[in-house]
Amino acid sequence: MAVVTPVLTFEDVRLSFAGVRAIDGVTFDVGPAELFAIIGPNGAGKTSIFNVLSGVYRPDSGRVAFLGEDLLSRRPHEIAAMGLARTFQNVELFHNLTVLDNLMLGRHHHFRYGAAAAVLWLGRARREELAARARVEDIIDFLELEAWRRHPVRLLPYGVQKRVELGRALAMEPRLLLLDEPVAGMNLEETEDMARFVLDIRDELGIPIVLVDHDMGLVMDLADRVLVLDFGRPVALGTPERVQHDPEVIEAYLGGTA
Amino acid sequence: MTAPPGVSGGRSRRVRGRPLLYTSYAQDMALLDTRGKRIWTGVLVAAAFAVSVLLADRSLEVLAVAYVLAIGAIGLNIVTGYAGQVSLGHAFFVAIGAYTAAALSGPPGGETLGYGLAEIWIWLPAAGLVAAVAGVLVAPLATRLRGLYLAIVTLGLVFLGEHVFKEWKELTGGPGVGREAAIPQLFGYRLDQDGPLGTKEQVLYLLMLSLLVVFAVAARNLARSRVGRAFAAIRDRDIAAEVIGVPLTRYKVLAFGISSFYAGCAGGLLYCVSGYVEPGSFNLLLSVQFIAMVLIGGVATVSGAIAGALFISLLQPVTRALPALVPVISGDTTQTPNVFQVETVLYGLLIVLFLVFEPRGLFGLWIRARNYWKSWPFSY
Fold first, then answer.
1. Is-contact A142 A208, C-beta < 8 A?
2. A249: which of A40, A184, B53, B341 lies 20 to 30 Å off by Cα?
3. Partners of residue A30 on adjacent β-strands
4. Quick one: fold of A1-83+174-258?
5. Which residue of A has its CA nearest to B257?
6. ipTM value of the model?
7. Which terms are listed as keywords in the entry (chain A) (predicted)?
8. pTM (predicted TM-score)
9. Which of B6, B28, B236 sits opposite A96 (nearest CB)?
């Protein structure tokens, strides 16, 4: 891995809220086409890491670089335009809009036309919209969302909403995808579907992924490398096999003393 | 990047009896995406134009005002319905448009400000732009405040405006006096006088109807574009919108700017019909009227805003006839209860009833009726 330049480097980041250390000196990097997982008990700082990455939180110290560029001084929408896409733990879709509009919103920063062209819907605006519509159709096909195109997302079953959110992130044509608990609250069948999509995204689309989840089986099956957190501190980092047999991990997370 | 097949929009065909079968993305994204919609919208617009020779001048006047109010309501719907930024200050932007237009088109050297630019293609965009600038200046508040707090601050604008317009007598003529409104003139032809094209009311009716069509189509286009989607994203979930790449501040400012542009244009046109502007008319009631139009018509729909504006405007002749029918209600503002109080109560009541029973407004009622007949005779 040493010769390959990482897509994302996260270096000694610290973040605290009024004395609570949410992230306490975490370091990791994500390689191209790698599926990197972060696990840990509730409150371990997993989602805080995502919020730092997408620009929602600003850490107290540390360095975060994405494709060689510093992330910490940027606004969330600028980070999105750089190609960093994410999904949320609790589905954060635009619930009055249709599946199509949600996916089209993922392409927001790919459009170049402005408000004046939008009002006329001629030339460039129309061309770009039609091209985006075609790209979105590929994602609908990829995620098997054909049946739901024109449904407002608030009416859709939870599992489908999760898939739409994944689709919205994919529509951004990301260069790194952050998935925050993609299978939370799903049954076995939905979990397996989602796992298949996640693997396809990495293997067919070649997009590196950072995955946060509680589902141990899923994480250990899918991930190339795993970072284990406990109370914001890194406990272990390595391949799933190594992490699973790490005594500190067993104590902190898997429970019991081995 | 090569365009996928069908994107050019060149070859697309319609299959008889399958109105929802789209064979190109252009069809899929069209404003009027089924044959039925195209035909009936065409019939409706044609009927609206035909009405200009069928109805009496008095009715045309009411409808012309309704169309202008519809332009204003579409504007409010852009910022409040689509972008979710509650604004009670719409009357303020309408006033700015009204006085910009009146001052530009007014005769120079009179008692009130006037620059003698009566050509409508000069003062109408100017009225919109000046109001839009005011909207853009107010917008930064929306990036700091949201929901109720924003509503209160925009409410403050109305009172601020009311005071300024009452005191600034060179511009407005002062309370109780007022001034002449914008003079609509197109290439030297006065549109507010009887002439070869028809009576004053007929010409103004056609002018307002044509402008409404233009403004409505523009708003529909905006709503289905990246801009309209970004507005809706900010309304539904602002944090998620920012994380997927929508710059919040820029789009909130844009929403206020465009909304105020519509308000300004509506303001410029609104008083052409009566020919007279009084500074007291830009009060909270006017803002509430616009909100009632949006809520009763249908939030975040252009056709709803138009329906709401027509509904409220056509309600007025009915309420104004009340004193003759119900002796308790007086037509005099100094007495209680008077028609104006009844109207205010009625707007409030209608807003409450619609919010409780059909939050989608008249547009929602229409959708319900349509779905009922689509599946008729089965209930679902």
1. no
2. A184
3. A8
4. Rossmann fold (3.40.50)
5. A115
6. 0.90
7. ATP-binding, Nucleotide-binding, Transport
8. 0.90
9. B236
